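Below is how a single chain appears once it has passed through the pipeline. First comes the sequence as given, then the structure the pipeline wrote out for it. We keep one example in the README because the format questions we get most often are answered faster by looking than by reading.
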Amino acid sequence: MPATVARVTGFDWAALSAGRNARIDAVPDMVRHALKVLEDLLEEADHACTFTLDDAPLVAGGVPASVQALLPQDCTVAGLAPVDWSTVVGAALPGFFVPTRQPDAWAGTAAPRAVADGLAAWVTALLARLWPGSAEAWELTVECRGWYEAAYVDLVVLAGGRVWLLHLGVSD
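Resulting structure:
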């Protein structure tokens, strides 16, 4: 493995001062920026990723009602299954969304894969600033009357009186 790939994949992203010392109110935008770069990196013909992070205060109807307010109008909450958020994010990013047209570019030690893995680790480190390991989290299943992503991972996290919806989707 080239030294540059080892440095990217072996780095402790949580130790990076840009994330560790960022104002907590700036962290959501940092996550959104990193997700956008990851979307762009993983894009190919007929393979477009949509990665979003939204949040809202917890409302009187609890987590399901709060999540419903964050979903597109033609979608409803079909199920919420308890999960460990970091396990779900780690399993999904970037592997679940890696394009298939250029297998050499996305092999485990290829530079694009190393960059994608590094960005995913950066996103996870930033999310850890927002969501403590003890935060309640659920994998969300949605029902839609219209179009939704071909494949997706939706994660709901309750932390600090806010409900967060991390949408990781791909249309191909």
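Residues 3-171 form a domain with the Protein Transport Mog1p; Chain A fold (CATH 3.40.1000).

See the next section for the split statistics.
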